[in-house]
Amino acid sequence: MPYGYNGKILRVNLSSGRIWEEHPEEDFYRRYFGGRGFISYYLLKELKPGIDPLGPDNPLIFAAGLVTGVPVGGCGRNSVGARSPLTSAYGDAEAGGYWGAELKAAGYDAIIIEGRSSSPVYLWLHDSQAEIRNASHLWGKPTARSQALIHQELGDPVIRTAQIGSAGERLVRYACIMNDLSHVAGRTGMGAVMGSKNLKAVAVRGHHRPSLADAGRVADLARWLRDNAMFNARQLHELGTAGLLMGLNSRGGLPTRNFHQGVFEGAGNISGERLRDTILVRRGSCFACPVRCKPEVALSHPHSVDPVYGGPEYETLASLGSNCGIDDLAAIARGNQLCNSYGLDTISTGAAIAFAMECFEQGILTQKDADGLELRFGNSQAMLELIEKIARRQGLGDILAEGVARAAQHIGRGAAEVALHIKGQELPLHEPRYKQGLGLGYAVSPTGADHCHNIHDSLYTGPGPQLEDFKTLGILEPLPTTDLSPAKVRMVYYIVNWRHLQNCLVFCYFVPLNFLRTAELVQAVTGWNTSVWELMKVGERCAAMTRAFNCREGFSEEDDRLPERFFTPFTSGPLQGVSVDREKLREARDIYYGMAGWTGPGGMPTLARLHELGIGWVADAVKLKTEYNKTV
Amino acid sequence: MPYGYNGKILRVNLSSGRIWEEHPEEDFYRRYFGGRGFISYYLLKELKPGIDPLGPDNPLIFAAGLVTGVPVGGCGRNSVGARSPLTSAYGDAEAGGYWGAELKAAGYDAIIIEGRSSSPVYLWLHDSQAEIRNASHLWGKPTARSQALIHQELGDPVIRTAQIGSAGERLVRYACIMNDLSHVAGRTGMGAVMGSKNLKAVAVRGHHRPSLADAGRVADLARWLRDNAMFNARQLHELGTAGLLMGLNSRGGLPTRNFHQGVFEGAGNISGERLRDTILVRRGSCFACPVRCKPEVALSHPHSVDPVYGGPEYETLASLGSNCGIDDLAAIARGNQLCNSYGLDTISTGAAIAFAMECFEQGILTQKDADGLELRFGNSQAMLELIEKIARRQGLGDILAEGVARAAQHIGRGAAEVALHIKGQELPLHEPRYKQGLGLGYAVSPTGADHCHNIHDSLYTGPGPQLEDFKTLGILEPLPTTDLSPAKVRMVYYIVNWRHLQNCLVFCYFVPLNFLRTAELVQAVTGWNTSVWELMKVGERCAAMTRAFNCREGFSEEDDRLPERFFTPFTSGPLQGVSVDREKLREARDIYYGMAGWTGPGGMPTLARLHELGIGWVADAVKLKTEYNKTV
User: Fold this and answer.
1) In what order do the strands lie in the sheet with A9-13?
2) Cys-Cys crosslink for A76: which of A101, A452, B58, B411, Cβ 3.0 to 4.6 Å?
3) What does the buried/exposed string (b/e) look like for A93-110 if buried means 16 or more CB atoms within 10 Å of the residue's CB?
């Protein structure tokens, strides 16, 4: 078996209770690496097109990656994927923490879960043993409680859990999967898929350590990270991702009141600095990571907040905060805890609430529609109550639990115009009018509005070491955040592919290993004489597979678009007058397709491009028409 | 100025006598590297489409590369390019030896020569000084003589010369440029372009040493090469490229009698082993190279051969030997000397003679047409006489001096069928029915039949370290030489791009630095945090530029084809029954276009691909129609 891997993929059929193993060849590992690579591979190979994402035919795939469990910061994560019940397209999400590393330690590289159990169960994997266990007593419990019960039952408090809360059990379409209460596989509704299988949790524990081709070089890289993390990622350590908030606000790019504004007058009250100075009690971490960017917050008044649930990061602060017009940090921290205990994606949850608030403000929803809530922007109590309602699918919460796209359809009366989503997934808290490359990334992402398949313009432009890193790829010039020139499209294209690669490695975006050091890490772990070329191509391969999957499900260029709101200029703030130019975006998208070879029917990767990526089989997997096979 | 470079490009107008310098920015160097990168850049930027390749408007560009002059084996070379008088397409050739390193030492990265002198001149560059000098007394002299006169005149026997012989002076369309008498920029007729300018030679001498970002790492790489050359390149050292001959013959892939057969019964008489055991007197070398693969041969009877002209390498042995049905090693050595003293490309010269022999055998040419020569395959005396006739443009030689394509047109009577060329350039001695990937490479090469833009299947397939190297690029499986599957197309595509990169570095193909070590060398020389990705993209960029140049000159997919002969199966030998499959080649070519993004009108790179390569300006340079600009 190749260095770094266990060489074992666990397969579980919850309908039949059957458990078995697969042992792929080294070439499989080298071609797909792990994480999203494995998920998209198996979905293309095994999923029947058109199945119900919440039915038994949708496999739920937990996947570690090439570097998972390697004792270097950023290597503790895991992916989990399936056809998304939110978008009906390719779905996956990643969580940090320790669970991924523990899965590898338990002896597996991935778990593919099919079917549906007739009653609630959880999976227990430990040192190459796997069993399906009764979870009836865990069903309905908040995540902290069910985790405690699992620890108690199995007699080991170090067991790592990936689990759903009530939201997943009730098939909220943006239910997430919680790792150890505070690390979240948030997007695309993987928690609902898990719930649909009557699967409460996957508990893992093990003592394998990944074999390393060159343990000395791995240790050197870990040491380099330790020595440099505080230089390259000091703000991240100090303030967490929340450190971004004030900068975005001052540049006019902080999503505010359902993306109506880019500046929030209450930003200072919900900033990373404010969080640090008031409610922060600890800086949490992930497996082996010296950065420690995870805030843990505590509070007893006016809300009770338990640090076991971590604390709000940037996305949550902006989602439940500025984008709902709320500057009440305590309420946001409480909302974060509610989401984590119910297993709700804070991004989509906040977006659904902001959507409802705008509907309310515009008179699309009445107070009666809102179950008596005064759903105005800024009403933090209403926000907290709506979270409870969504998780329990009560009243308006039941409608919002379907996601803003379906909710708007249900509500009618012009609600669709204020439902901000792409392919059915709500927008993360990154403003496409400011980060225009990211806007393009949203449009072409297989999972719709998803910042995790995307470029963070703000991190990668301007002078300084970031530009130096880009030169490794041949991008020599700095490109402004609001630029959408062909040169910027190339940068987006490269970074999106690199993101895909990172999701195949299952390596953290935030750990400051640049392109070359990442290649060095892969080489040290596996012994493969790899290169940035091979890594980029793994990413591009994965992008092509997720694209092909979506084409098979009927998605096309038509679905690669931004909500209308972003073609409307800001009316205030530093970006006053700035919007996405519709024609420029269309051109940029077409150039992106051309670069990616997504110029087959419906935006499919061409056969030639599939062959260049060594995945000619994908053309068969999507059952392309004969004329397609002639179009190269 | 960037490490490794002088930061100076010399410009000379021979019509006006004006000499000036350009000082490009660092980005220019990092984007195009040198060699073919510079040549294709300037041809696209400055050449008017449709000009006469032998007129004053065709610039002749001598270019060193990124690594030229760096004290590591493989770094002594130079490129020289222009619009080709043989193909009317993009033209360039590379020569080894010392001239390239000396050009850099003289203070220049490249020389762009425009116009036409009214009388013979030569250029003399020394330590950042450039002058145009009278060469009337050198005109018509054999290369050894004119070099001696230059040394004498300038009082320095270490001056390096790049010069033409009578063939270039008389505009033989495949006249070459000779570096120091035995290193040859052979293909595409650059010697004729030089002759058309009345430029006899470029003599260079200097004392600059390239500044290196990390001289220690450069020295380490040079040491690694020295220590490993004899392991990785032992056969090359022992036998030169001639070491390939017997293996090709035994596998049925040795071009014999104008590519009628793949096995030559007299191969043993013209092999590298025979050469070593009989006429070899020294193993010559190039700048800083530990491999020393250049045979130097001497002979007084039955022919006189002077080792100053080097000795025949594989291409020459097969071209003047097996492909003419000749197994007389002494005659071949003499033929090699004639070609080097007249400045004739031995590949095209031998091909022209083989063509004439087949015409004679088939009755297309009579003895009268052949100036009384009995032009049968195997007639070594006729071969030697024909070389003289071609160089002097006498009789049949005058016709053959135009290249086989034009000669066949002139002769008529079915001669076109036996004229083996692609885009007008004669085939090198690599059999497309055996090396099928190379056959595809011939078809798509910007210079027609050219093994220097191409894959050498025999070197890169099968198990062993070569396959390990390919894994660096993500190619995981061995691919048979006769394979032409989409996986093979990818391998060809990658290697062709890598060849382009090597031609931008101006680095020898034969020096065994693999992909990763090459990137390490570039990094050590320049200090750039480069990667195999950046290098491959430099190669792809260059491929796209040469392609775009040809499209501007009216070339299209129609020109990317093989001679009919290769669709006819071998009738004997190990490859009996094997031919190129017409349909498979067409499919492979289309897949290649798809991979390269050559799917614009006439096979132009798409606008999206140009942007991905950071050369959107090329679309303007080729003055693409509006509808093209809409096609991405």
Assistant:
1) A18-22, A9-13, A110-114, A60-63, A78-83, A90-95
2) A101
3) bbbbbbbbbbbbbbbbbb
| Helices A329-342/A346-361 angle, 10° precision | 120
Q: Phi-psi bin for A299: left (phi > 0), alpha (psi -120 to 50), beta?
A: beta
Give the model confidence (pLDDT) of B287-311 as tens digits. 999 999 999 999 999 999 999 999 9
Answer yes or no: do B614 and A493 touch at CB < 8 A.
no
- DSSP 8-state code for residue B184: E
Spell B356-372 as b/e; 16+ CB within 10 A means b: bbbbbbeebbeeebbee
The model's pTM is: 0.96
B511 compared with B152, residue with greater pLDDT? B152
ipTM for the whole complex = 0.95
Rounded to the nearest angstrom, the gap between the alpha carbon of residue A461 and the centroid of all alpha carbons in its chain is: 23
Confidence of residue A624 (pLDDT cuts 50, 70, 90): low
* CATH 3.60.9.10-classified regions of chain B: 9-205
CATH 1.10.599.10 in chain A, residue ranges: 436-629
Mean pLDDT of B591-608: 96
Q: Give the span between the Cα atoms of A229 and A504, in whole angstroms.
A: 23
B487 contact A CB<8A: yes
Bridge partners for B426 per DSSP: B421
Mean pLDDT of B5-23: 98
Phi and psi at A82, nearest 5°, equal 180, 175
Fold of A436-629: 1.10.599
Query: Residues of CATH 1.10.569.10 domain(s) within chain A?
Result: 241-426
Task: Supply the CATH classification number for the domain A241-426.
Answer: 1.10.569.10
Closest alpha carbon to A622 in A545, A548, A559: A548
The mean pLDDT of A446-463, rounded to a whole number, is: 72
Q: On the CB side of B484, how many CA atoms lie within 13 Å of its CA? A: 26
Residue B630 pLDDT: 45
With beta carbons less than 8 A apart as the criterion, state whether B596 and B611 touch.
Answer: no
Fold observed for domain A9-205: Aldehyde Ferredoxin Oxidoreductase;  A, domain 1 (3.60.9)
Considering only CB atoms, A608 lies closest to which of B529, B532, B594, namely B594
Q: How far apart are CA B429 and CA B199, in angstroms?
A: 30
- Average pLDDT over chain A, rounded to an integer: 95
Q: What is the mean pLDDT of residues A9-33?
A: 98
CB contact (8 A) between residue B531 and residue A534: no
Position B457 scores a pLDDT of 64
Residues 6+ apart with CB under 8 A from B438: B430, B432, B451, B454, B455, B456, B457, B492
Contact B609 A591 (CB under 8 A): no
Residues in chain A, how many?
Answer: 632
For residue B458, what pLDDT is reported? 52
- Which tens digits make up the pLDDT trace of B489-514? 999 999 999 999 999 999 998 888 89
Closest CB from A468, A606, A612 relative to B490: A612
Return d(Cα B385, Cα B324) in angstroms, integer: 13
Per-residue pLDDT, averaged over B444-473, amounts to: 76
CB A310 within 8 A of CB A340: yes
Q: What angle do CA B13, B15, B17 make, to 5 degrees?
A: 60
Spell out the SS3 assignment of A148-209: HHHHHHHCCCCCEEEECCHHHHCCCCCECEEECCCEEECHHHHHHHHHHCCEEEEEEECCCC
The closest CB to that of A530, out of B472, B530, B594, belongs to B472
